[in-house]
Each structure stands twice: as structure tokens, then as C-alpha cells.
Amino acid sequence: MNELPVFIPLRFQVAVLDQHNNLLCRGAFSEVSGLEATMTPKTVKEGGRNWGEIQLAGPVTFQPVVLKRGVTDVGDLWSWFDIVHRQGSLGLRYSARIEVFHPEKKEPLLRVTLANVLPSRFKGPDLAATASQVAIEELTLVHEGLTLERGG
User: What is the per-residue pLDDT for 152?
Assistant: First the structure.
């Protein structure tokens, strides 16, 4: 696939990769939200310790990532959503790589990798003959973990 151009309003590129890091689909988006991990601490009350509780690391939960106002090559992200939900491939999970670009540089400033991703919501644009809408209004991805990597 050709590289998507980085326009100022489309500063986030999203690539969906299989388990061998082969590119399956790619899109450029103007907004990405939900890059959040929350750890719920576990408290332990220890006998003889009267000043506070011991705080232990507990389970981590991840918020769904929402990609807004994007364009892709020939409906690739819709095809993935369709395969997972309508065609019964419920276990078809990929990884997703989100790259954040500076408007004037070609190298990403930040790379976020999501593990075991499933598309949970696909919203197309409202269709109007006089409007100039984008190809995807919103795509929501649920995942099982994220990693952050600083770019050049």
C-alpha cells in the first residue's frame, strides 16, 4: 500500500497488523481518544499497622479507543469490521499501531501499539449531496493492552 499523505487535520495514522506484522489496512484520522489505562489498587490491612493500608498493584483496565473523521484505502477498516461481526470471525483479533505526526516532519513523534484489537463500532458519515464528508466518521476499537514508544 502507498503511504497516506499527512495533512494537518489528519495527523494520526492507524495501521492494523496481523500476528506476523503484515499490514492489513491503514487509515488517517483527525482525532484519537481513549488512550487510557487504569490500575485499580488493592488494599491490604495488616495487623499491627494502624497507620494506613498497604497499597498493592491491582488489575488494569483499558478504555476503548475512538478514531474520528478518517479516510482509508477502499474501505479496509469497514472490511475488517464486517469480517469480525457479520461473517462470524469473532476471534479475529489484530494489533493496531497509531502514529502521531508533526505537520512538518515525516517521522512519527509517538507510536501507540494496541494488543488484541476488535472493532466494536463503525459509524459512517451522514450522506448529503452538498456536503464534503470524510469516509469514516467514527471507529471504536476495544483492546487488551497498549504500549507507548517515542519516535524521532
Answer: 60
Confidence at 68, pLDDT banded by 50, 70, 90 = confident
What residues have CB less than 8 Å from 149, skipping those under 6 apart?
110, 111, 112, 113
CA dist 52 and 55 (Å) reads 9
Q: How far apart are CA 112 and CA 35, in angstroms?
A: 9
Q: Strand (E) positions, the chain?
A: 12-17, 23-33, 37-39, 42-44, 54-56, 60-62, 65-72, 94-101, 108-123, 136-142, 146-150
Please name which of 72, 53, 151, 50 lies closest in space to residue 119, comparing C-alpha atoms: 72
Question: Angle at Cα 135 formed by Cα 100 and Cα 20, nearest 5°?
Answer: 55
State the amino acid at position 16 in one-letter form: V
pTM above 0.85, yes or no: no
Residue 135: burial class (beta carbons within 10 Å; 0-12, 13-18, 19+): middle
Q: Read off the pLDDT of each residue in 72-98 and give the average, rounded to a whole number.
A: 76
CA distance 145 to 124: 26
Residue with the bigger pLDDT between 6 and 87: it is 87
